[in-house]
Specification:
By secondary structure, the protein is mainly alpha-helical. It contains six helices and no strands. The protein has helices spanning 28-78, 84-131, 144-153, 160-175, 179-187, 210-223.
């Protein structure tokens, strides 16, 4: 989710400290990690595939509108002399294409926010299933600091700050302004639209870009249970 580091990280090759040797049978603990690693990465693969599919249609709408606008501009330049009705028709067509582009841009923004929320919920659910009480508070809810401590104790390559940013961003996308919005503004002002000095951050100012989502998928993938021996 950072803007400073947009370079995709390598997929996780980390294994739990007590990973089984390839020549021997897995223990119950190792089998638990392997099963959850398979579930985690399978669910993440499905979610990422769905995200790309959801982006395809509005992206196509935007690109098609851009091409038509370019052709329209060529028509303007080709015909120096046009009567009033022709100019009005071309102007109306240009307005229509601009509307298509705007609709595509808004659709993409909504898709990104929806999948940002889904990505954090996937992380939260999968890590709770994997770590159980060790990653939860007394009420059984996902607890970020406890989860990070547990995963680090398992020798996982986790990114606590980036996962915290993902959590705040998902909460802002769901609930608008509030404590999470201010925390996100402090940690990652680039997630908001040209407003790093706002006292009250509003939902409309949230701006999730493609590289935010791409990086969030990488961070979640690297930080979770490894694919393990069952991913054949």
């Amino acid at each position: 989710m950072t803007e400073e580091d947009q370079t995709p990280l390598p997929l996780s090759t980390a294994t739990p400290a007590n990973a089984a040797d390839s020549d021997g049978p897995m223990t119950a603990t190792e089998l638990h990690a392997a099963v959850h690693g398979l579930r985690f990465h399978t669910a993440l693969d499905w979610l990422e595939t769905a995200y790309k599919a959801a982006c395809a249609r509005p992206t196509e709408m935007i690109e098609r509108a851009k091409r038509r606008v370019e052709r329209l501009q060529e028509d303007w330049e080709r015909y120096d002399v046009m009567d009033h009705d022709d100019r009005e028709a071309l102007s109306d067509h240009n307005d229509s294409l601009s509307g298509d582009m705007s609709a595509g841009i808004v659709s993409l923004a909504l898709v990104r926010e929806a999948f940002l929320i889904s990505l954090f919920h996937l992380w939260e659910k999968q890590i709770k299933d994997f770590g159980g009480p060790a990653v939860c508070d007394k009420e059984g809810r996902y607890h970020h600091d406890r989860a990070m401590g547990y995963l680090l104790s398992q020798s996982f390559r986790v990114f606590p700050r980036e996962l915290q940013i993902l959590k705040y961003a998902a909460e802002v996308a769901k609930h608008s302004e509030g404590p999470s919005a201010q925390k996100l503004l402090d940690l990652r002002p680039g997630c908001f639209v040209n407003d790093t000095t706002a006292v009250n951050v509003h939902y409309e100012r949230l701006m999730i870009m493609p590289h935010h989502i791409d990086f969030a998928f990488v961070v979640v993938r690297v930080s979770g249970p490894p694919r393990g021996l069952l991913d054949l």
